[in-house]
Design a protein that fits this description.
Elements: E1 9-13, H1 17-27, H2 35-39, E2 50-55, E3 59-64, E4 67-72, H3 81-84, E5 89-95, E6 98-106, H4 113-122, E7 128-130, H5 135-145, E8 149-151, H6 156-168, E9 174-177, H7 183-188, E10 191-195, H8 200-205, E11 208-210, H9 216-251, H10 257-275, H11 277-284
Parallel strand pairs: 7-8, 9-10, 10-11
Antiparallel strand pairs: 1-6, 2-3, 3-4, 4-5, 5-6
Helix pairs in contact: 4-9, 9-10, 9-11
């Protein structure tokens, strides 16, 4: 949902009709972004699970009659190597603890993902991927967009630990996420950015929300922020420089009051005009 379009679909599954109906009904109760793909397969008026429990970073479980169903992280990802090699995410279904099948979920890359990563690198920013997906899926996606450093199979608390680790090394961390598994890391980062299509918890934990457009908006935000800081420094410099020169001249009666008033007005106008340059930078960012 961050580097991908955020509209996952089930590309393949291996469940029988009853288990498929149960899994789809259970996923309707989940907050995970990938759950929408499975929930879309649920038939109207289908079965309703009991004793539903969602475990962050693991999956969701519920009871149908006397059977307990779990939908989430596979016990042994190596069993699904062919699916993972395609860059898909595998969601395993277990009935009473035993594997009953899987969903292979595909989510295409955003059109601007490669360009966004390239722009961030050009700005001197090191992109790092942290995902709960299997390493083969993560490597396939990271390789497609140009990210070298990948942390796969990461749980929510481990994402926060990674943020803390990078900060301890003196880095400033900008975290981008869209799910409840990202909320803690978004809150702990120096700057948290949530994708607008993500979960409410992620959005509430973020400093910036990308309402429209793709991940290129991250590069846009960094560019505008840097320009804003530059303009603030310029305005402060000229304001202090003006006062440093003008106030002593006025105190020594070497500056006519009318000239001093005009100079003060010019100083205020120059600050406003300089600040308007930020709008030009914003207008120049590509609209996607």
């Amino acid at each position: 949902g961050t580097l991908t379009e955020g509209h996952p679909t089930v590309a393949e599954h291996s469940l029988d009709g009853e288990t498929l109906a149960w899994a789809a009904a259970l996923e309707r109760r989940s907050n995970h972004p990938l759950a929408k793909a499975v929930a879309a397969l649920a038939a109207p008026g289908g079965p309703e699970p009991g004793a539903v429990e969602e475990i962050a970073g693991e999956g969701i479980r519920g009871v149908f009659g006397t059977a307990e169903l779990f939908v989430g992280r596979p016990l042994d990802p190596a069993l699904y190597g062919n699916q993972l090699a395609l860059g898909r995410t595998v969601v395993e279904v277990r009935k009473d603890g035993a594997p009953a099948g899987f969903f292979s979920i595909a989510d295409p890359l955003r059109d601007d993902a490669v360009d966004a990563v390239s722009r961030l690198k050009a700005m001197g920013i090191r992109p790092v991927m942290a995902t709960g997906d299997d390493e083969r899926t993560a490597r396939a996606v990271a390789g497609a967009v140009g990210i070298e450093e990948v942390h796969a199979g990461v749980r929510p608390e481990e994402k926060l630990s990674l943020v803390r680790e990078l900060q301890a090394k003196g880095g400033k961390v900008l975290m981008v996420g869209d799910g409840m598994n990202d909320a803690a890391a978004l809150k702990g980062a120096d700057v948290g950015v949530a994708v607008g299509s993500g979960m409410d918890l992620a959005i509430d934990s973020a400093d910036i929300v990308i309402v429209s457009g793709g991940v290129s908006r991250i590069a846009d935000a960094v560019s505008i922020s840097r320009q804003t800081l530059s303009v603030i420094r310029q305005n402060l410099f000229w304001a202090f420089a003006y006062n440093f020169v003008a106030i002593p001249l006025a105190m020594a009666a070497l500056l006519h009051p009318v000239i001093a008033e005009a100079a003060m007005a010019f100083s205020s106008i120059s600050v406003i005009l300089n600040s308007l340059r930020i709008r030009a930078v914003s207008a120049e960012t590509p609209q996607r």
